[in-house]
Amino acid sequence: MIRVRVSRRRLALAATAALAVTAGTLTAGPATGVPAASAQASAQASSQASAHAAVRAASPVPPQNVPFPVDGTVFGVGPTGFLSSQSGPQITWRWTRFADGATTVLPEKSYRSVGRTDVVANNDGSGVHKLYDMGTGADPVEIVGVPPGSGRTVAAFTTTGLLVKEPCPTGGTVLHVVGKREGVPFDHTVTGLPDDALLIHVKVDSPGTALVLFSTTVDGVKRYRAAVVDLTAHKVVEEYEAAEGARRPALSATHIVWSEEREGATTKIALTRRGSGETVRHDMGTKEAVVPDLIGDWWTHRQSRPEMTGPARPEYALYARSLATGETVKLLEHTLNAAIAPGGTQVVRGGTLEHGEGLYRISPGADGARPTVALVASTGQHTALELKGHDVPDTIDLSRPTEPIMLRWKFSKYTTRTRVELVHTASQKTWKAEVGHFEGGVVGFPWDGVYTKFWNWQSNYGDGVPAPNGAYTWRITAQPRDGIGPAVEKTGAFTVVRDAEPHDFDDDGAPDLLARSDFGGLYRLHTSIPLGSWPLVVGDPIAEGWGVYDDLLAPGDITGDRYGDVVTRDRSGVLWLHPSTGTAFAPRVRVGGGWQVYAQLTGGSDLTGDGLPDLVATDRSGVLWMYPGTGDVSAPFAPRVRTGHGWNIYNEITSVGNVGGGPAGDLVARDPAGVLWLYLGKGDGTFAQRTLIGRGWNVYGGLLGFGDADHDGRPDLVGVTSEGKKPFLYRGTGDWKVPFQPRGKVYSSSYDYVPGTVF
After folding, report:
1. Using DSSP, how many helices (H) and how many strands (E) does the chain show?
2. 40: helix, strand or coil
3. At 256, is the secondary structure helix, strand, or coil?
4. Greatest extent of the chain over all pairs of C-alpha atoms, in Å
5. Rounded-to-5 percentages of helix, strand, coil across the chain
6. Structure confidence at residue 581 (pLDDT)
């Protein structure tokens, strides 16, 4: 026997948060008879309410709609509100009123709704079922569950009790309507079901009606039936022929509908006009589950979305078909779940491109017109794909890249066919990234400052060319993976900066070689990152007429504008400064005459410790002179200072920067026997005693201080062979005893050679 009792005390309100959903201030409605929630739950409800109000303030959704959790689903709809759940570490259940948006957070239990009513039910785990009328706040009805060992199970809830299944001796299932009405307990057996009926599905469609799908045996053949049960009279009042796999029934004033899902077969939707017994089946063309419903003179259908966190797809849209003409229209772009609602309506959790995500009420149209769609509760989200933000910094410093910089863009949902282009504003060089996809709608890629990923003989760029400094724009184009709505295209900007490199003549952070051809043309020869990864090709032409110079130097940033400059001496002994603009050279500036007295010129090391590169010259008698740099383009060098003598024993003197880790820049000098010596700068323009650092260096026709080619903070050296004009790199170690590593390649091919004079 099932015992039924009514609580004598009204339980406290769980948590009610009045939300501003229209102009003006609204207050919470009357307390409802629901169990008391914790103070923490109340605080959470208030916080969530404020958050939803803030979201809606910036949303395109009309302001009269109440809020809905972003990760929520709807489980029941009554005349005054709806029951929803929100996923998370702990599922949160809420009752929300339509009138004012007041939300009650329910205690941590599992809840079910009675079709088209304000009644919700739960089981506290002890076998006691409680029914709460959220609209009136009446005392909850407590029903002590089925007796242990009775074999009875709860099939559904009604407004006054339960529908209970009980096995019977004939092998079938008996359905009971139990509860309490007007203070009187009852336990009625539903009549009209066969003795061998096996109940497949029981659904309370409205306060007085239930739908039952069952199987029975007729003349030794298993048959399937759909029945309408009058809960007040507790009997079957209508019965229709169904088929194997019958699921998901729905009822209207004129029709009954259900789906038929059989393994290996496509899903069918069966439509029967009530009282006629004539059933029309529609093949849905899919083996997935399809959920039907009836809205006036139309029936709706949607495929069940397996989980809220998974991607939506076009087949998850909500469609409506006319019962009269078969016309089909799309009502929602996608759906997550749905619940039957009063007045022959349906409430669906889904979205439209116009109003975004939330709960939509689908109502019959007037005189057979298309169903109407109205947003009744909003999440504040758009259904169309949106770019929510990005992690592309305004400035990207590539001076010392220890690892790639992750560039990310966050979208409102998952994307596909996402493309990113980076465009250097000054040169219009474009790089197209290979984008990766991550959780939460994030796309991105690690950028190491490499600007192209392909070999192009026409542009003289190859794999591993560094990105130039300066302004960039990015453009991202993304297609929604679910196919809902248009692609998104957004643009932004950032700036690449680096420390200045003395041999960087195209402002990309990588040192370059300059070469003068035998015909006087000046060329820039690019290098790659990492150095030696691609072959040498004839570089970009810079200027003509440089055959008038008998000495060429690349001493670094003479003018103080961070770009590496060039110094030349013409055949009459005049010294010229060619200021760099980063990618070209400005008109030359005359420094002075009489420089033909010097046998050798070199520059690039800061010998005085003032941060400016200095020029060094040896005269015909072997005296070493230093010209301190000033940083002034009109007078780039101070008067000379004698710093040594006897330097005419060397056939090559090269400024290499601070390779020894001392207080200032250093020099290397090579004698005719091919021995290379290191002179460590003291910081006052003079040098410590020389140190032998290598032999066999007479294979090189020229030695160049190359700056920091590998971005490890140490200057490097390049030697260009006398035979074949092949450049080789000596990476700096920072150790004055062994200042250079064994030689490596500047370009990938051993056949590469530099045409003309290299500096």
Report:
1. 1, 60
2. helix
3. strand
4. 126
5. 5, 45, 50
6. 87
Mean pLDDT by 10 residues, the chain (759 residues): 28 27 25 34 34 29 65 94 90 92 89 94 79 92 76 91 90 92 86 95 95 95 97 96 96 96 95 92 94 96 74 84 96 93 95 94 94 94 94 90 86 91 91 88 89 46 71 96 92 92 82 89 82 74 93 92 92 96 90 96 92 94 96 94 95 94 92 96 92 95 88 89 88 93 85 80
Strand, helix or coil for residue 441: helix
Cβ atoms 132, 93 nearer than 8 A: no
The structure tokens listed for 142 are 């407590």
Query: What gap in Å lies between CA 574 and CA 30, rounded to an integer?
Result: 97
The residues, any chain, with a CB within 8 Å of residue 366's CB and separated by 6 or more, are: none
Three-state DSSP state, 236: strand
Amino acid letter, 261:
E
Q: Which of 546, 535, 554, 540 is nearest to 583 (CA)?
A: 540
Q: Cα separations (Å) of 607 from 485, 520, 612, 683?
A: 65, 32, 8, 5
Beta-strand pair 119-123/652-657? unpaired
669 strand-pairing partners: 653, 677
Report the sign of the C-alpha dihedral through residues 511, 568, 672, 666, in that order: negative
Other beta carbons within 10 Å of 232: 12
Q: Which has the closest alpha carbon to 95: 63, 130, 135?
A: 135
Round to whole Å and give the CA distance between 77 and 206: 11
What's the pLDDT at 43?
36
CA distance 675 to 267: 88
Q: Over the Cα atoms of the chain, what is R_g? A: 42
Q: What is the pTM of this model?
A: 0.73
Two structure tokens written together for 136: 């009136």
> What is the DSSP secondary-structure string of 98-133?
TTT--EEEPPSS-EEE-TTSSEEEEE-SSSEEEEEE
Which helix (H) or strand (E) segment holds residue 85: the answer is strand 81-86
- In the three-class reduction of DSSP (H, G, I as helix; E, B as strand; rest coil), residue 617 is classed as strand
Contact 451, 467 (CB under 8 A): yes
List the end-to-end C-alpha distance of the chain, in Å, as a whole number.
Answer: 103
Residue 182 is predicted with a pLDDT of 78
Give the dihedral of Cα atoms 523, 527, 533, 537; nearest 10 deg.
Answer: -10
**Lookup: tokens for 539:** 């570089």
Q: Which residues, in sequence order, are bridge partners of residue 525?
A: 513
- Residue 109, strand partner residues: none
Question: What dihedral do alpha carbons 124, 127, 129, 130 form, nearest 10°?
Answer: -50
With the C-alpha atoms ordered 179, 185, 186, 187, is the resulting torsion angle positive or negative? positive
The one-letter code for the residue type at 578 is H
Locate tokens 């229709």: which residue?
Answer: 240
DSSP string, 563-589: S-EEEEEETTS-EEEE-B-SSSBPPPE
Q: What angle do CA 633, 635, 641 make, to 5 degrees?
A: 130
